[in-house]
Amino acid sequence: MLKIQLNEQLSISKLVVGCMRMNDWKLSVKQVVEFIEWCIERGITTFDHADIYGGDHRNEALFGEALQLEPTLREKIQIVTKCDICVPNAKNPNVKTRFFNTDKQYVLAQVNESLDKLKCGYIDILLIHMFDLLVDPSELNETLQQLKDEGKVKYFGLSNHSPLEFDTLQKYTDVPFVTHQFMLHPLGIQNYHNGTMTHCLKEGISPMIWSPLAGGRIFNPTNAAEENMKNVLENIRQELGLEHIDEVVYKWIFRHASNPAIVLGTGNKERIERAIKSVDGVQMTREQWYKILIEAGYTLW
Protein backbone atom coordinates (compact mmCIF):
# COMPACT_ATOMS: atom_id res chain seq x y z
CA MET A 1 0.00 0.00 0.00
CA LEU A 2 1.38 3.37 -0.96
CA LYS A 3 1.90 6.05 1.67
CA ILE A 4 1.20 9.75 1.32
CA GLN A 5 3.81 12.01 2.88
CA LEU A 6 1.91 14.96 4.37
CA ASN A 7 5.11 16.56 5.66
CA GLU A 8 8.63 15.45 6.56
CA GLN A 9 7.48 13.73 9.75
CA LEU A 10 4.00 12.47 8.94
CA SER A 11 2.68 9.98 6.41
CA ILE A 12 -0.76 8.39 6.09
CA SER A 13 -1.97 5.44 4.07
CA LYS A 14 -3.43 6.07 0.63
CA LEU A 15 -6.62 4.39 1.84
CA VAL A 16 -8.12 5.49 5.15
CA VAL A 17 -10.69 3.56 7.17
CA GLY A 18 -13.62 5.86 7.93
CA CYS A 19 -15.07 4.93 11.31
CA MET A 20 -18.30 6.95 11.14
CA ARG A 21 -20.44 3.79 10.94
CA MET A 22 -18.23 1.52 13.04
CA ASN A 23 -20.89 1.15 15.69
CA ASP A 24 -23.24 -0.19 12.99
CA TRP A 25 -20.79 -2.93 12.05
CA LYS A 26 -21.79 -4.75 15.27
CA LEU A 27 -18.25 -5.85 16.07
CA SER A 28 -17.08 -6.93 19.50
CA VAL A 29 -14.00 -5.21 20.91
CA LYS A 30 -11.93 -8.28 20.01
CA GLN A 31 -13.29 -8.17 16.47
CA VAL A 32 -12.34 -4.49 16.20
CA VAL A 33 -8.79 -5.43 17.22
CA GLU A 34 -8.74 -8.15 14.57
CA PHE A 35 -10.09 -5.72 11.96
CA ILE A 36 -7.42 -3.11 12.76
CA GLU A 37 -4.73 -5.80 12.53
CA TRP A 38 -6.17 -6.99 9.21
CA CYS A 39 -5.99 -3.45 7.83
CA ILE A 40 -2.43 -2.92 9.05
CA GLU A 41 -1.33 -6.17 7.36
CA ARG A 42 -2.59 -4.70 4.08
CA GLY A 43 -0.89 -1.35 4.55
CA ILE A 44 -3.95 0.59 5.71
CA THR A 45 -2.77 2.36 8.84
CA THR A 46 -4.91 5.51 9.03
CA PHE A 47 -8.29 5.61 10.79
CA ASP A 48 -10.71 8.53 10.56
CA HIS A 49 -12.96 9.51 13.47
CA ALA A 50 -14.97 12.46 14.76
CA ASP A 51 -16.19 13.25 18.24
CA ILE A 52 -19.83 12.96 17.10
CA TYR A 53 -19.59 9.62 15.24
CA GLY A 54 -21.85 6.87 16.50
CA GLY A 55 -25.47 7.16 17.56
CA ASP A 56 -24.44 8.14 21.08
CA HIS A 57 -21.01 9.44 20.05
CA ARG A 58 -19.65 6.00 20.90
CA ASN A 59 -17.38 5.17 17.97
CA GLU A 60 -14.21 6.71 19.38
CA ALA A 61 -14.83 4.79 22.62
CA LEU A 62 -15.26 1.49 20.78
CA PHE A 63 -11.98 2.07 18.96
CA GLY A 64 -10.35 3.05 22.25
CA GLU A 65 -11.48 -0.17 23.89
CA ALA A 66 -9.71 -2.05 21.09
CA LEU A 67 -6.52 -0.07 21.64
CA GLN A 68 -6.77 -0.76 25.36
CA LEU A 69 -7.15 -4.47 24.67
CA GLU A 70 -4.13 -4.45 22.32
CA PRO A 71 -1.96 -1.39 23.21
CA THR A 72 0.76 -2.25 20.66
CA LEU A 73 -1.58 -1.14 17.87
CA ARG A 74 -1.33 2.55 18.73
CA GLU A 75 2.17 3.14 17.41
CA LYS A 76 1.35 1.29 14.18
CA ILE A 77 -1.51 3.57 13.14
CA GLN A 78 -2.46 7.20 12.59
CA ILE A 79 -5.62 8.49 14.24
CA VAL A 80 -7.52 11.35 12.64
CA THR A 81 -10.42 12.91 14.53
CA LYS A 82 -12.53 16.05 14.26
CA CYS A 83 -14.48 18.48 16.40
CA ASP A 84 -16.67 21.63 16.37
CA ILE A 85 -20.11 20.20 15.43
CA CYS A 86 -22.70 20.46 18.21
CA VAL A 87 -25.79 18.33 17.67
CA PRO A 88 -29.01 18.02 19.70
CA ASN A 89 -29.32 14.49 21.05
CA ALA A 90 -29.44 12.55 24.30
CA LYS A 91 -25.77 13.22 24.93
CA ASN A 92 -26.29 16.98 24.58
CA PRO A 93 -29.66 17.64 26.24
CA ASN A 94 -28.98 21.39 26.43
CA VAL A 95 -28.34 21.70 22.69
CA LYS A 96 -31.55 22.53 20.83
CA THR A 97 -30.14 23.50 17.41
CA ARG A 98 -27.23 22.10 15.41
CA PHE A 99 -24.36 24.60 15.32
CA PHE A 100 -20.58 24.84 15.01
CA ASN A 101 -18.29 25.87 17.87
CA THR A 102 -14.59 26.73 17.67
CA ASP A 103 -14.41 28.52 21.03
CA LYS A 104 -11.20 27.67 22.84
CA GLN A 105 -12.86 26.15 25.88
CA TYR A 106 -15.09 23.94 23.75
CA VAL A 107 -12.35 22.65 21.42
CA LEU A 108 -10.00 21.88 24.32
CA ALA A 109 -12.78 20.01 26.13
CA GLN A 110 -13.69 18.00 23.03
CA VAL A 111 -10.09 17.01 22.36
CA ASN A 112 -9.68 15.90 25.97
CA GLU A 113 -12.87 13.86 25.67
CA SER A 114 -11.69 12.28 22.43
CA LEU A 115 -8.38 11.34 24.02
CA ASP A 116 -10.22 9.82 26.96
CA LYS A 117 -12.52 7.80 24.69
CA LEU A 118 -9.68 6.72 22.39
CA LYS A 119 -7.57 5.64 25.37
CA CYS A 120 -4.45 7.23 23.96
CA GLY A 121 -2.16 10.13 24.78
CA TYR A 122 -2.22 11.98 21.49
CA ILE A 123 -4.09 12.47 18.22
CA ASP A 124 -2.09 12.37 15.01
CA ILE A 125 -4.30 14.81 13.06
CA LEU A 126 -7.10 16.98 14.43
CA LEU A 127 -9.46 18.44 11.83
CA ILE A 128 -11.83 21.36 12.35
CA HIS A 129 -14.94 19.56 11.13
CA MET A 130 -16.91 22.45 9.58
CA PHE A 131 -16.30 26.15 9.06
CA ASP A 132 -17.62 28.12 12.03
CA LEU A 133 -18.92 31.47 10.75
CA LEU A 134 -18.33 32.90 14.24
CA VAL A 135 -14.75 31.68 14.44
CA ASP A 136 -12.18 33.97 16.02
CA PRO A 137 -9.08 32.96 14.01
CA SER A 138 -6.63 34.38 16.55
CA GLU A 139 -8.30 32.46 19.37
CA LEU A 140 -8.33 29.30 17.26
CA ASN A 141 -4.61 29.75 16.67
CA GLU A 142 -4.04 29.92 20.44
CA THR A 143 -6.13 26.78 20.90
CA LEU A 144 -4.26 24.74 18.28
CA GLN A 145 -0.89 25.94 19.53
CA GLN A 146 -1.79 24.93 23.09
CA LEU A 147 -2.85 21.46 21.97
CA LYS A 148 0.41 21.08 20.08
CA ASP A 149 2.54 22.37 22.97
CA GLU A 150 0.79 20.00 25.38
CA GLY A 151 1.52 17.07 23.04
CA LYS A 152 -2.16 16.22 22.70
CA VAL A 153 -2.28 16.79 18.93
CA LYS A 154 0.65 16.39 16.55
CA TYR A 155 -0.79 17.96 13.39
CA PHE A 156 -3.86 19.85 12.23
CA GLY A 157 -6.08 20.15 9.18
CA LEU A 158 -9.52 21.21 8.04
CA SER A 159 -12.63 19.42 6.87
CA ASN A 160 -15.37 20.71 4.54
CA HIS A 161 -13.98 24.24 4.17
CA SER A 162 -13.98 26.35 1.01
CA PRO A 163 -10.65 27.63 -0.37
CA LEU A 164 -11.42 31.08 1.08
CA GLU A 165 -12.27 29.62 4.48
CA PHE A 166 -9.08 27.53 4.41
CA ASP A 167 -6.89 30.51 3.49
CA THR A 168 -8.51 32.75 6.07
CA LEU A 169 -7.84 30.35 8.94
CA GLN A 170 -4.34 29.53 7.72
CA LYS A 171 -3.46 33.25 7.58
CA TYR A 172 -4.00 33.52 11.35
CA THR A 173 -2.70 30.09 12.31
CA ASP A 174 0.95 29.42 13.13
CA VAL A 175 0.59 25.65 12.72
CA PRO A 176 0.37 24.66 9.03
CA PHE A 177 -2.64 22.60 8.01
CA VAL A 178 -1.37 19.28 6.64
CA THR A 179 -4.54 18.10 4.87
CA HIS A 180 -8.09 19.04 3.91
CA GLN A 181 -10.89 16.47 4.04
CA PHE A 182 -13.99 16.90 1.88
CA MET A 183 -16.53 15.02 -0.24
CA LEU A 184 -15.97 14.07 -3.86
CA HIS A 185 -17.57 11.46 -6.11
CA PRO A 186 -18.90 11.22 -9.69
CA LEU A 187 -22.36 12.29 -8.50
CA GLY A 188 -21.04 15.26 -6.53
CA ILE A 189 -18.27 17.35 -8.08
CA GLN A 190 -18.86 20.66 -6.29
CA ASN A 191 -15.28 20.62 -5.03
CA TYR A 192 -14.11 20.77 -8.62
CA HIS A 193 -16.62 23.54 -9.41
CA ASN A 194 -15.58 25.68 -6.43
CA GLY A 195 -11.84 25.19 -6.89
CA THR A 196 -11.17 23.18 -3.75
CA MET A 197 -9.25 20.45 -5.60
CA THR A 198 -7.15 23.06 -7.40
CA HIS A 199 -6.59 24.82 -4.08
CA CYS A 200 -5.00 21.63 -2.75
CA LEU A 201 -2.51 21.80 -5.63
CA LYS A 202 -1.82 25.45 -4.85
CA GLU A 203 -1.17 24.68 -1.19
CA GLY A 204 0.76 21.50 -1.91
CA ILE A 205 -1.44 19.36 0.31
CA SER A 206 -3.01 15.96 -0.28
CA PRO A 207 -6.76 15.98 0.36
CA MET A 208 -8.69 13.22 2.09
CA ILE A 209 -11.79 12.35 0.05
CA TRP A 210 -14.86 11.08 1.87
CA SER A 211 -18.02 9.46 0.43
CA PRO A 212 -16.28 8.39 -2.81
CA LEU A 213 -19.20 6.11 -3.73
CA ALA A 214 -21.94 8.65 -2.96
CA GLY A 215 -23.32 6.64 -0.08
CA GLY A 216 -23.92 3.66 -2.36
CA ARG A 217 -25.83 5.56 -5.08
CA ILE A 218 -23.02 4.66 -7.51
CA PHE A 219 -24.36 1.09 -7.34
CA ASN A 220 -28.05 1.86 -6.78
CA PRO A 221 -29.09 4.92 -8.83
CA THR A 222 -32.10 6.91 -7.67
CA ASN A 223 -32.75 8.91 -10.86
CA ALA A 224 -31.94 9.04 -14.58
CA ALA A 225 -28.75 11.08 -14.16
CA GLU A 226 -27.37 8.59 -11.64
CA GLU A 227 -28.37 5.69 -13.90
CA ASN A 228 -26.47 7.36 -16.75
CA MET A 229 -23.38 7.73 -14.58
CA LYS A 230 -23.54 4.07 -13.61
CA ASN A 231 -23.57 3.17 -17.32
CA VAL A 232 -20.60 5.47 -17.99
CA LEU A 233 -18.64 3.86 -15.17
CA GLU A 234 -19.57 0.39 -16.42
CA ASN A 235 -18.29 1.20 -19.92
CA ILE A 236 -14.98 2.45 -18.53
CA ARG A 237 -14.77 -0.59 -16.26
CA GLN A 238 -14.92 -2.79 -19.34
CA GLU A 239 -12.37 -0.67 -21.19
CA LEU A 240 -9.92 -0.92 -18.27
CA GLY A 241 -10.60 -4.60 -17.62
CA LEU A 242 -11.58 -4.06 -13.99
CA GLU A 243 -13.94 -6.23 -11.96
CA HIS A 244 -16.21 -3.64 -10.33
CA ILE A 245 -17.28 -0.06 -10.97
CA ASP A 246 -16.12 1.09 -7.53
CA GLU A 247 -12.56 0.47 -8.75
CA VAL A 248 -13.27 2.90 -11.60
CA VAL A 249 -14.37 5.56 -9.11
CA TYR A 250 -11.27 5.10 -6.95
CA LYS A 251 -9.00 5.37 -9.98
CA TRP A 252 -10.85 8.51 -11.07
CA ILE A 253 -10.22 10.14 -7.69
CA PHE A 254 -6.60 8.98 -7.48
CA ARG A 255 -5.87 10.39 -10.96
CA HIS A 256 -5.67 13.97 -9.65
CA ALA A 257 -2.16 15.40 -9.16
CA SER A 258 -2.86 16.49 -5.58
CA ASN A 259 -2.27 12.84 -4.58
CA PRO A 260 -5.53 12.28 -2.69
CA ALA A 261 -6.23 9.75 0.02
CA ILE A 262 -9.64 8.07 -0.01
CA VAL A 263 -11.67 7.56 3.16
CA LEU A 264 -13.52 4.26 2.90
CA GLY A 265 -16.73 4.29 4.92
CA THR A 266 -16.98 0.53 5.18
CA GLY A 267 -15.87 -2.39 7.27
CA ASN A 268 -16.59 -4.81 4.42
CA LYS A 269 -13.30 -6.57 3.74
CA GLU A 270 -14.21 -7.50 0.17
CA ARG A 271 -14.86 -3.88 -0.70
CA ILE A 272 -11.67 -2.81 1.04
CA GLU A 273 -9.69 -5.39 -0.95
CA ARG A 274 -11.12 -3.95 -4.18
CA ALA A 275 -10.06 -0.48 -3.10
CA ILE A 276 -6.55 -1.77 -2.42
CA LYS A 277 -6.41 -3.21 -5.94
CA SER A 278 -7.33 0.19 -7.38
CA VAL A 279 -4.29 1.93 -5.92
CA ASP A 280 -1.94 0.38 -8.48
CA GLY A 281 -2.32 -1.27 -11.86
CA VAL A 282 -3.89 0.16 -14.99
CA GLN A 283 -4.33 3.94 -15.01
CA MET A 284 -7.36 5.77 -16.31
CA THR A 285 -6.74 7.78 -19.49
CA ARG A 286 -7.32 11.53 -19.60
CA GLU A 287 -10.25 11.00 -21.96
CA GLN A 288 -11.89 8.51 -19.61
CA TRP A 289 -11.31 10.83 -16.65
CA TYR A 290 -12.85 13.80 -18.43
CA LYS A 291 -15.74 11.66 -19.66
CA ILE A 292 -16.76 11.03 -16.05
CA LEU A 293 -16.30 14.70 -15.12
CA ILE A 294 -18.41 15.94 -18.04
CA GLU A 295 -21.17 13.41 -17.43
CA ALA A 296 -21.17 14.59 -13.81
CA GLY A 297 -22.15 18.04 -15.03
CA TYR A 298 -18.86 19.90 -15.48
CA THR A 299 -18.74 22.33 -18.40
CA LEU A 300 -15.26 22.60 -19.93
CA TRP A 301 -15.97 25.85 -21.78
Protein model, in words:
It is built from eleven helices and twelve strands. The mean pLDDT is 96. Strand 8 (123-128), helix 4 (137-149) and strand 9 form a beta-alpha-beta unit. The protein has 301 residues and is an alpha/beta fold. The protein has helices at residues 29-41, 59-69, 104-118, 137-149, 163-172, 190-193, 196-203, 224-240, 245-254, 269-279, 286-295; strands at residues 3-5, 11-13, 15-18, 46-48, 78-83, 85-86, 99-100, 123-128, 153-159, 177-183, 208-210, 261-264. It holds the Pfam family Aldo_ket_red. This is NADP-dependent oxidoreductase domain-containing protein. Residues 14-291 form the NADP-dependent oxidoreductase domain.
Measured by DSSP, the beta-strand proportion falls in: 15-25%
How large is the count of helical segments?
11
CATH class of the domain at 9-183: Alpha Beta
Overall CATH architecture of the domain at 9-183 = Alpha-Beta Barrel
| Secondary structure: helix percent | 40-55%
Distance between the termini: 37 Å
Output the CATH topology of the domain at 9-183.
TIM Barrel
Rg over alpha carbons: 19 Å
- Please outline the major beta sheet: 8 strands, parallel, barrel
Mean pLDDT reading: 96
What is the string of SSEs from the N terminus onward?
EEEHEHEEEHEHEHEHHEHHEHH
Shape: globular
Give a count of the beta strands, DSSP E runs of length 2 or more. 12
In the predicted model, the low-confidence regions spanning at least 5 consecutive residues are none
Q: Name the strands of the widest sheet in spatial order.
A: 3-4-5-8-9-10-11-12
Helix and strand composition category:
alpha/beta
The fourth-level CATH homologous superfamily of the domain at 9-183 is: NADP-dependent oxidoreductase domain
GO cellular component, one term: cytosol
Protein name: NADP-dependent oxidoreductase domain-containing protein
Pfam family, one: Aldo_ket_red
InterPro entries: AKR_Detox_Biosynth (IPR050523), NAD(P)_OxRdtase_dom_sf (IPR036812), NADP_OxRdtase_dom (IPR023210)
